[in-house]
Amino acid sequence: MEKITIGDFKKMFNQAYTDIKQREDEFSQLDAVIGDGDHGTAIVQAMQSAVEAIDKGAEFKQMLNDAGFNVMLQTSGSTSTLMGGFLLGMSDHSTGEELNIDQIKALFKGGLEGVQKQTKAQPGDKTMMDALQPAVEAIVNSESADIRTIMESAANAALEGAKATVGMKANFGRARNYGEKSIGYADSGASSWACMFQAFSKSL
Ligand SMILES: [Mg+2]
């Protein structure tokens, strides 16, 4: 697979929405360990708003811009801000109706930069960044000429990153107050974003 079309991209996001919705309770329960237990609801609502706009899209830049704004207008809280930043960052680095491998690398790199504009969290802080950053690095650094292989390595990197949060102490935001209590459970955001990258890979 050397290109992804708008249609492929719609499938990727619809699969992510379906898979995240299926694990909604799990993500909320993980969030309840060191937070307010709303992450499942928040990520499902953000994905629903994203997919609503993506399904209407005909061209990458406008579609991702509409999706980012739809998420931020319809939902609130940190999950909304981060998902909005991801989509707007991808919009800034995309064009046209299909993407080749170099364009896909630029798209996801832009998405990560969009999230980095919204949070100072670094890998190791036990946040969604522990899944997102390794996933994007896997895409950018891949030498494969096959998009399926590239997205599979992103899914694996995101999953590894999310698993690694089990042993981490929360170091960011309100969750930081829970200190040692946060060890032993995966971060809810890292888990849901890893689920998203697994779904992207599965859909192709
Ligand atoms: Mg929460």
Main attributes of the structure:
204 residues, mainly alpha, two-stranded antiparallel sheet, 2 strands, 67% helix, binds magnesium ion
Ordered list of secondary-structure elements with their pairings:
Layout: E1 3-5, H1 6-22, H2 24-34, H3 39-54, H4 60-74, H5 78-92, E2 98-100, H6 101-116, H7 129-141, H8 147-164, H9 188-203
Antiparallel strand pairs: 1-2
Helix pairs in contact: 1-3, 1-9, 2-3, 2-9, 3-4, 3-5, 4-5, 5-6, 6-7, 7-8, 7-9, 8-9
Describe, in plain words, how this protein is organized in 3D.
The protein has 204 residues and is an all-alpha fold. It has nine helices and two strands. It has helices at residues 6-22, 24-34, 39-54, 60-74, 78-92, 101-116, 129-141, 147-164, 188-203; strands spanning 3-5, 98-100. Strands 1-2 form a two-stranded antiparallel ribbon. Helix 2 crosses helix 3 (39-54), helix 4 (60-74) packs antiparallel against helix 5 (78-92) and helix 6 (101-116) runs antiparallel to helix 7. The model has no long low-confidence stretch (mean pLDDT 96). The structure holds magnesium ion (MG). Magnesium ion binds next to loops.
According to CATH, the fold-level topology is Serine Threonine Protein Phosphatase 5, Tetratricopeptide repeat
Q: Would you identify the CATH architecture? A: Alpha Horseshoe
* CATH superfamily heading: DhaL domain
Distance between the termini: 9 Å
Q: Any idea what the radius of gyration is?
A: 16 Å
Please describe the biggest sheet, giving its number of strands, its sense, and whether it closes into a barrel: 2 strands, antiparallel
